[in-house]
Design a protein that fits this description.
two-stranded parallel sheet, 5 helices, two-stranded antiparallel sheet, alpha+beta
Length: 127
């Protein structure tokens, strides 16, 4: 399912190709996914291990409870669960928008990503 005006989504995960294919086949079969078990892309984008508070602090726990109430259950962990997620909007080799998570259950402002894709949002600060 794709929203008009929203860029193509490509997910990067820590599992093997087979693990990713198995996971996304039942959840989002049309999404493009890249296996990165050696953390090459994670490192290239500056993603690393979060603090205890970022990974399992109060805000992350509240987000987990919210997900459970919506029927999203925790599965078998794959990879390093301490590595923080990231969200990026790319155009070629340029980052137009990025979201640096403050905790593992945070929701990015996807409206800001859409605005960046349309060229109506400010560029992200350099890292």
């Amino acid at each position: 399912m794709r929203e008009p005006g929203f860029p193509r989504v490509v997910l990067v995960h820590q599992g093997s190709v087979e693990e990713g294919d198995g996971f996304f086949a039942s959840r989002w079969p049309e999404v493009a996914a890249i296996a990165d078990p050696d953390f090459e892309l994670y490192s290239a984008f500056g993603l690393g291990a979060g603090s205890i508070g970022e990974v399992i602090g109060p805000r992350a726990i509240v987000a987990s409870v919210r997900a459970l109430v919506r029927g999203n259950f925790v599965g078998k962990p794959v990879g390093d669960v301490k590595v923080m997620p990231g969200a990026f909007l790319l155009a070629g080799d340029e980052i137009l928008w990025r979201h640096d998570y403050r905790h593992s259950g945070e929701r990015p402002d996807w409206g800001a990503a859409t605005a960046a894709a349309r060229g109506t949002a400010p560029s992200p600060p350099p890292r």
